[in-house]
Specification:
single chain, alpha+beta, 49% helix
Length: 205
């Protein structure tokens, strides 16, 4: 992975994350970033959106990742991402790297697309139409649509609790020292995250 200019993040891939994100298919690698006002995933061939407030923000702003992600720009409402988080489902690891390099890396994992017959194209079209016809509010919630209006369903709320609990278990004394050192040097991320971090300490030590 180092040969792909991807930097290993200190936290393993949360086991519930692919399902929370809504990954389709069995690709080993997928990436996450923020684009077009939406938390977005791609595996190099498929692409979709997912909940910002129930998945993306709690993950990227959790104390176990916030400090390590600070140097990278994963995207905003005003700017396209220059970096992306890469998730390895097989080895359960997370990396971060330059967005163009991540795109190339994800594409490598797929074989060339087959040539579809007219009949197969029609079958795909019908399948997509059926999926669209079955959209309901829970589907929109899963995709991160209308979050401020629709909120989150019970499954999302439960998954969020499980994700937070799992990430809390990754808090270490060494990480706390890193935050304290960074805060003493005036690092804004450390200063803003440290109060939340300290609230978690009694749960883990």
């Amino acid at each position: 992975m180092n040969g792909q200019n991807l930097n290993l993040l200190p936290v393993p891939l949360p086991p519930m994350l692919p399902e929370m994100v809504g990954i389709v298919g069995d690709s080993r690698y997928f990436a996450m970033f923020y684009m077009g006002s939406k938390a977005t995933w791609t595996d190099g061939r498929g692409l979709g959106t997912f909940s910002y407030y129930a998945v993306y923000e709690p993950l990227t702003e959790h104390p176990t990742l916030a400090l390590d992600l600070e140097p990278y720009h994963l995207g905003s409402d005003d700017e396209f991402p220059t970096h992306a988080i890469v998730c390895d489902r097989l080895e359960e690891k997370m990396y971060v790297g330059d967005y163009p390099e991540v795109e190339k890396f994800l594409n490598i994992q797929h074989p060339p697309l087959p040539t579809l017959s007219p009949e197969e194209v029609e079958q795909q079209r019908q399948r997509i139409e059926e999926e669209l016809a079955n959209f309901d509010i829970s589907t929109f919630q899963k995709l991160g649509m209308f979050e401020l209006l629709a909120g989150h369903n019970q499954q999302q709320k439960q998954e969020l609790v499980e994700l937070g609990h799992w990430l809390d278990q990754q808090v270490t004394e060494d990480l706390l020292r890193r935050y304290l050192e960074a805060a003493n040097k005036g690092n804004w991320t450390a200063i803003s995250v440290l109060p939340r971090f300290l609230q978690r300490i009694p749960k883990n030590f």
